[in-house]
Amino acid sequence: MRVRVSVPAKHAKSIHGKLKGFFETVEVEDWEKGNLEMVGLIEPGNYKAIAELLKGDKKEKIEQIGLELLSLKVISEGEVEIN
Question: Which residues form the Ribosome maturation protein SDO1/SBDS C-terminal domain (predicted)?
C-alpha cells in the first residue's frame, strides 16, 4: 500500500521514529515549516497501527493529522514497480 501521512509540527518530532518504522520504503519525507509529510510503502497490516499512533492517547489527541491511502496494490520486484 502507498500512503501519505501528515503530522503538525507540534507532534512531528515525537512520533517520527515510530512512524518511520512502519514504512517499508519512504519515498518522500518533507519537513516544511516543522510539519512532517511522509509518502511511502507500507504492509497492509501496518495501516491500522499507523492510524492508532496518529490518534494518540485520549488525553492528548493529535489534531490536524492526515492519513491518506494513495494506492492499495503496489508490487515491487527488483527495480520494477507495478501499481
Answer: 1-70
For residues 80 and 66, what is the distance between their CA atoms, to the nearest angstrom?
29
- Measure CA of the first residue to CA of the last residue in the chain; give whole Å: 9
The pTM score is 0.78
What's at 12, amino acid-wise? A
Q: Strand, helix or coil at 48?
A: helix
Q: What is the pLDDT of residues 8-30, one digit of tens each?
A: 988 899 999 999 999 999 999 99
Looking at the structure of the chain, the number of domains it has is 1
| Angle CA 53–55–56, to nearest 5 | 70
CATH number for position 25: 3.30.70.240
> In degrees rounded to 5, what are phi and psi of residue 44?
-55, -35
Range of the domain at 22: 2-82
